[in-house]
Write a structure and sequence with these properties.
Number of domains: 2
Oligomer: single chain
Structural class: alpha/beta
Strand order of the largest sheet: 6-2-1-7-8-10-9
Radius of gyration: 21 Å
CATH class of the largest domain: Alpha Beta
Number of helices: 12
Number of strands: 12
CATH topology of the largest domain: Rossmann fold
Strand content: 15-25%
Bound molecules: S-adenosylmethionine
């Protein structure tokens, strides 16, 4: 076996063993074209540890009862790209249609004025803090609301940065200057998220593939799981989406990544169409539609801008064909991405 300092090469068999282990544990699936990516990430870690072979490293991860090295591996293989106000059309739909509707229903109802939002796969915190800002703006200081934003990720390294709440550079590029001034404290070149937003968000390390644990989250009004399931196999997506469905309150809504779709994954949700955004809803009064979906849809008008004041994005009639059109576009984009990834091989 090669030793440290040698030109080490991860064999396809070793790669597949590690890849299958990651898939089984964390749901992420790496095609054979990701061999070199995994090799380069593991090699650095093995050098740090003084581990000579991929096989030794694999055993170290697999048989470490403390799970410490498994968490290190997750830090290495996850893609944590994120930024504030990511995907403006979706956030417009959330801020001007989804959220006001939920708030209005709760105002009218007799239940507690609680808003429960879940950012599943929150990476370094930009998504849940963005949602916190939008909720603050929507509530306009109205008293009596209890807001909980649950944010989790498998990567402890990402969560560490999320909890610090300090940002600079490109991640802030879509933050409106007024929002930056109102919700961040400037410290040198960095911007620290203000306590009034930070206190809304609770970060918890969680592996979404451990779906038993997801059942501790109940009565969610909104779930954001964006750009996370894209790394999972369909089998894992189905399992997790089923768990999300169970975690949503009746009437609860889910937003996934712009280039993702639940086509072939779940028919349990009612599909709502907004301009540039699809929202998946667990219908009021329907306890379990799993496998019997009607994907109804609505069209909408939108206004651009992650500015503090947003014009409402409305759902309106006649959108079924538009929704299908959007789904087809998403599917075509995914196919193109897969082909490209295959060609690049990395
Ligand atoms: C590309 S980031 C997306 C962040 C954010 N949702 C957004 O759209 O900007 C994907 C995140 O999913 C996390 N992730 C991947 N597999 C996961 C799993 N099994 N459980 C929890 N988080 C996971 C990664 O660590 C990463 O931070």
């Amino acid at each position: 076996m090669p030793s440290i300092g040698d030109q080490r090469t991860l064999s396809i068999e070793e790669f597949r063993t590690i890849r299958d282990f990651i898939h089984e544990k964390a749901g992420m699936y790496f095609g054979d074209n990701k061999l070199y990516l995994i090799q380069s990430r593991l090699t650095k870690r093995m050098d740090q540890l003084g581990v000579a072979t991929y096989r030794d490293y694999f055993y170290r991860v697999k048989y470490d009862t403390s799970q410490r090295e498994f968490h290190e591996l997750m830090n290495l293989v996850t893609t944590n790209e994120t930024y504030y106000f990511r995907n403006e059309p979706q956030l417009d739909a959330f801020a001007t249609a989804v959220l006001p509707e939920i708030i209005e229903n709760k105002r009218k109802g007799r239940g507690p004025k609680t808003l429960r939002i879940w950012s599943a796969g929150c990476s370094t915190g930009e998504e849940p803090y963005t949602l916190g800002i939008l909720v603050k703006q929507a509530l306009k200081g109205e008293a009596g609301w209890n807001v909980e934003i649950i944010a989790n990720d498998i990567s402890e390294k990402a969560l560490h940065r999320a909890r610090a709440g300090e940002y600079e550079g490109a991640t802030l590029r879509y933050v409106n200057p007024v929002v930056l001034k109102d919700y961040f404290d400037k410290e040198g070149d960095a911007f620290r998220i203000k306590r009034e937003i930070k206190s809304l968000v609770k970060f918890v390390q969680l592996n979404l593939n451990e779906t038993r644990k997801l059942s501790m989250y109940k009565n969610l009004d909104v779930i954001f799981c964006r750009n996370v399931m894209i790394y999972f196999s369909d089998e894992v997506k189905r399992k997790i989406v089923r768990a999300f469905y169970q975690s949503l309150a009746n009437g609860g809504q889910m937003l996934i990544g712009h280039s993702e779709t639940l086509h072939g994954i779940s028919k349990a949700f009612k599909l709502k169409y907004y301009k540039g955004a699809l929202v998946y809803m667990k219908e009021e009064g329907v306890t379990d539609r799993a496998g019997h979906a009607t994907e109804s849809s609505k069209s909408a008008t939108s206004t651009p801008g992650s500015a503090p004041r947003r014009a409402p994005v409305r759902a309106s009639s006649g959108g079924a064909s538009k929704a299908l059109e959007l789904l087809a576009k998403i599917k075509a984009k995914q196919d193109a991405q897969r082909t490209l990834a295959g060609k690049i091989g990395g």
